[in-house]
Design brief:
Strand 1 (146-153) and strand 2 form a beta hairpin. 16% of the residues lie in helices and 29% in strands. The chain has 432 residues and is of the alpha+beta class. The protein has six helices and 21 strands.
Length: 432
C-alpha cells in the first residue's frame, strides 16, 4: 500500500507514467480529532500527489478578549447586596405610599388622569343653588314655623297640623283638629321638640282654632294677602299628612271663592269661600299653611274632595281647599283678643238652598234694621251676584258673606220682578 491516493477524475484520462515522485514527508496524526480525519494512507483511491490529510486551520484569534457574560442565575456578588436591599425597600415604600394616596384621592372624588364619574364641574348649576325665592328656599324658610298637632279626643288621638302665628306661642289650626278634645294638645315642632298647648278658643262655623304653647321666641309665619292671589299662582302646602311630619307638596291655585259647606249630617256645618289647589293634601294636613311663591301664608288647608265614600279611605285626587288667610287671620285675632270669633252677616235668610228659577238666590226673610234692610233689599228679591261673584244657591251667599270682615261694603246685584238693580250693603257682625 502506498502513501498516496489513486484518485481518478470522473471521465478523465489516466495520469501519464513517469519516474516516481519523492515520498512526501510522513504525516503525523495530530488532527485525529478533526471531523475531516480518515485513514487516508490506507485509502486505495488516494491520489499519490495529494497530502495525506486535510488540515483545517483554526480561525485567527480576536485581537481582544471577548466580554465576559454574567450568568443571570448565578449568585450576585456580595458587594451588590446592600444596593439590592435598598432598592427593594424603596420600591415597597413607594408602592405603599402610592396605594394610600390613591385610596385617599379616590375617596375624595378621584385624581387627575383616573376614572372620574360624572361631570368634573364642581360648581352647582343655578337650578341647584336653591335661592331664597325658589320652592326649596321657601320650604326651608317656612318649615320651622309649621307644627304637628296631637290632640286627645274621645275616640283616641286627633292628628293635624298648624303654624306659629306669634313669637309668644299662638298657633293657628283647624277647629275640627281639636274638636272634642279632652285635654291639652301636644305641639311637635319641625326639629322634633315638643311643647304642651292649650286651646284658647275656636270657631266651629269658620273651622278656625287657636292654641297657646308656653315657649318664647318662636318663628312666626309671614302672612300674605289672600285677596291678591290669582288662579295659576304657585303654592306650597305644608303639614303632616297621615302623621308624616314636615311634608311639603307643591301645586297651583286652581280656583278662587269655591264655596264650601262641610260637616257631618246633624253636626256642625262650616261655610267658607275657599282657595282651591291641586297641591297634594291628605288627612293630617288640616290646619297646615298654604303659602304663595314668596313663602307668605295665603290659606289654611282644611278639606279635600274624594271619590271615596268613607272618610277614612279618602285621599288626594288634586282637589284640596283652604280657608283664605284674610278670613282665618281675622277670626284668629278675635279669638286671641276676646276668646270667640265674630261672624259676618248680611241680615237676611234665603228661601231655599237650591238655585232659584232663572239663577240666583231668593230672600225669604229680612232682619229689621239689618244690613240688607239698610241697603234697600226686600223679601222676594233674587240676589244674583255679590261683589261680582255669581250666586247659584244659598250656600254661596253665606260662604261669600263670611269671607268679609264686619263693616265691609259689598255690591249686591239682584232682580226684583223683571227689573235688575244694584245695592250697596254694609255687612255687620252677628249679635251672638
Amino acid at each position: 500500500m502506498t502513501d498516496g491516493w489513486n484518485w481518478r477524475q470522473p471521465g478523465g484520462a489516466p495520469a501519464p507514467a513517469g519516474p516516481p515522485s519523492p515520498a512526501p514527508p510522513a504525516q503525523t496524526r495530530t488532527d485525529a480529532g478533526s471531523p475531516w480525519w480518515s485513514d487516508a494512507l490506507a485509502d486505495p483511491w488516494r491520489d499519490p500527489y495529494a497530502p495525506a490529510a486535510v488540515v483545517v486551520r483554526p480561525p485567527d484569534a480576536p485581537a481582544t478578549a471577548p466580554e465576559p457574560v454574567t450568568d443571570p442565575d448565578g449568585a450576585s456578588p456580595r458587594g451588590m447586596l446592600p444596593v439590592v436591599l435598598i432598592a427593594v425597600f424603596a420600591a415597597l415604600l413607594a408602592g405603599s405610599l402610592g396605594g394610600a394616596l390613591g385610596y385617599a384621592f379616590a375617596v375624595r372624588g378621584g385624581v387627575d388622569g383616573g376614572t372620574v364619574l360624572g361631570s368634573t364641574d364642581n360648581e352647582a348649576p343655578a337650578v341647584a343653588q336653591r335661592p331664597p325665592d325658589s320652592l326649596a328656599g321657601v320650604a326651608e324658610r317656612v318649615s320651622p314655623s309649621v307644627v304637628t298637632v296631637r290632640a286627645p279626643a274621645a275616640g283616641g288621638l286627633s292628628v293635624g297640623s298648624g303654624f306659629v302665628a306669634t313669637e309668644d306661642g299662638y298657633v293657628i289650626t283647624n277647629d275640627h283638629v281639636v274638636e272634642g278634645t279632652s285635654g291639652p294638645a301636644t305641639i311637635v315642632f319641625s326639629d322634633g321638640s315638643t311643647a304642651t298647648g292649650s286651646v284658647v278658643g275656636h270657631d266651629a262655623e269658620s273651622d278656625i282654632a287657636v292654641i297657646k304653647v308656653s315657649r318664647p321666641n318662636l318663628v312666626p309665619v309671614q302672612f300674605g294677602d289672600s285677596d291678591a292671589i290669582a288662579v295659576g299662582d304657585p303654592v306650597l302646602a305644608f303639614g303632616s299628612p297621615l302623621a308624616l311630619a314636615n311634608t311639603v307638596t307643591s301645586g297651583i291655585v286652581s280656583a278662587l271663592d269655591r264655596t264650601i259647606q262641610s260637616g257631618e249630617p246633624g253636626g256642625q256645618v262650616r261655610y267658607y269661600a275657599a282657595i282651591q289647589t291641586d297641591a297634594a293634601v291628605n288627612q293630617g294636613n288640616s290646619g297646615g299653611p298654604l303659602v304663595d311663591g314668596a313663602g307668605r301664608v295665603v290659606g289654611v288647608n282644611s278639606v279635600i274632595k274624594s271619590l271615596a265614600a268613607d272618610e277614612e279611605e279618602a285621599g288626594n285626587i288634586g282637589l284640596a281647599f283652604a280657608i283664605p288667610i284674610n278670613q282665618a287671620k281675622r277670626v284668629a285675632q278675635d279669638i286671641i283678643d276676646t276668646g270667640k270669633a265674630r261672624r259676618t252677616v248680611i241680615g237676611a235668610t234665603v228661601a231655599e238652598a237650591t238655585r232659584a228659577p232663572g239663577g240666583g238666590v231668593r230672600l225669604a226673610a229680612i232682619d229689621a234694621g239689618g244690613p240688607a234692610a239698610a241697603g234697600g233689599l226686600k223679601v222676594g228679591d233674587v240676589l244674583t251676584r255679590l261683589d261680582g261673584r255669581p250666586l247659584e244657591q244659598g250656600t254661596d251667599l253665606i260662604a261669600l258673606v263670611r269671607k268679609y270682615a264686619p263693616g265691609s261694603v259689598v255690591t249686591v246685584e239682584y232682580r226684583r220682578g223683571s227689573a235688575k238693580q244694584t245695592a250697596s250693603v254694609t255687612l255687620a257682625a252677628d249679635a251672638k
